[in-house]
Amino acid sequence: MVEKIIVENLNCYYNKNCILDSLNFSILKNEILNIIGPANSGKTTFLRTLNRMNDYNTYYSRNGNIYLDKLNIFNMSVEKLRRRIGMLFAMPIPLPMSIYENIVFAPKCLGLIFEKSKQDYIVECVLKAVFLWNEVKDRLNKSAMEISGGQQQRLCIARILAINPEIILFDEPCSGLDPISTAKVEETIIELKKKYTIVFVTNNVKQASRIGDRTAFFLMGKIIEINKTEEFFISPKQKKTADYISGRFG
Amino acid sequence: MCGMLSVIFVILIFGFLFVESFTFLKNFGIFRFITGKHWFPASNPPSFGILPLIIGSILITFGACIIAIPISIMSALFISEIAPENLRDFLKFLIELMAAIPSVIIGFIGMIILVPFIKKTFNLSTGLTAFSGSIVLAFMSMPTMISISEDAIHSVPWKYKEGAIALGATKWQTIRKVVLKAAMPGIIAAIMLGIGRIIGETMAVMMVTGNASNIPKTIFVPVRTMTATIAAEMGETVRGSMHYRSLFAIGLILFLITFIINLIADLFLRKIRR
Questions:
Q1: ipTM associated with this complex
Q2: Superfamily of domain covering B17-273
Q3: A96 — contact with chain B (CB < 8 Å)?
Q4: Which residues of B touch A170 (CB under 8 A)?
Q5: pTM summary value
Q6: Which domain covers residue A68, as residue numbers?
Q7: Helices assigned H by DSSP within chain B
Q8: B3 and chain A: CB distance < 8 Å anywhere?
Q9: pLDDT tens track for B125-154
Q10: Which of B166, B170, B178 sits opposite A53 (nearest CB)?
């Protein structure tokens, strides 16, 4: 397996409080890596460090390195980095524009597509990829605020696909959704694995056991255990992991 | 209850203006009043054409908008999106302070500093021009426009910006395509309030525009506005005379114009919200 991302001695701080404590691990190409752990264990901070969304937070500081295909992401331009690493947030964030514009917004900003016919094609492709095309094809020009939460979240995934990144980060994408929408989003994510490398943060242990190739357990900013998902859940090596997945603490 | 009261007041004001000006409009003719090119209320026979006044008001308002709107939006964006936090608070404080300056004082500064400056720069026979009026009014309306636009821009949820930035949009693209778009209803409301202030302003305009009731051909000639006419002549008229009633008729027209502007703004806002 090819290592897509290598994390090397990463420490992150908010107001001098250590949030991530000397992380060292790698993410493989075309895998789904689950990250589970209780609140305040640094899962979201890690994702936001990966595509440098925390650069805008003045209380945030970090040291260490992250390599994407052997290039240090902290030396790249943030726009280029985010084109390669897309991120989906916990709550669906449709931009205040139509469904169609939501999808072509980023490609236009990045200067990837200009012709109308090509835009139409991409909109159709990405909406089909997230199983949303049949539900919204008749109202592409309606505001994205009007569709349901689950549809919005899938639209947000479609929007990321439109810039065709290499890695997609999911930050508890189903935490605000009902079970049926959740199933649809999960189905979408498993389908995406064929083309993309996925980092999937979730609070839901069962969900992690359903979809990931490997699972990492974060606790208080440290990685307690990282292993193949099956082994991770059937025979965890660390006692803390076993306690957490069986619901004895956390 | 209070809402009802304010509606009743508006209706009463309209009724008052209408009753006071009704006999004049009936005798002189509304059409002749609005399209008449000469305002000579004191000559014999008097001529009550307010076209020059309407054009004066519109010209100055238009000029002030062209100056004030871009500057206001850019200032609001700078204050809310680009300036660091302590600078932001300071600027916001300054702008709210600016809004409290009485119009007479702005007019006074305009008369002493701006008018001679314009006379010299453009080599005119007088600096009391529509252009001076526009600049003074732009200064008067900017605090309102900036302050309210800034509130609107600042209240755009952080998550929209985050969503756009996470997709690889630059800060400038995010501001232009997402923040401005989301804040647009508020910005339009700010602009409309600013325009309301510009049209209704009397004192400052009277002091810097020269008050000549000609139909202006350029912006570098003296003009007279409807508000300035009412303020300047009300003291000299005989109560109940034709001239007296004609001033109320001007007030009625002014009221209708502001009413229509607010109505358009309201319709526009509703359309955008939907």
A1: 0.79
A2: MetI-like (1.10.3720.10)
A3: yes
A4: none
A5: 0.79
A6: 3-245
A7: 2-28, 30-35, 51-77, 85-99, 103-109, 115-121, 130-154, 158-166, 171-174, 180-200, 203-208, 226-233, 242-273
A8: no
A9: 888 888 999 999 999 999 989 998 999 899
A10: B166
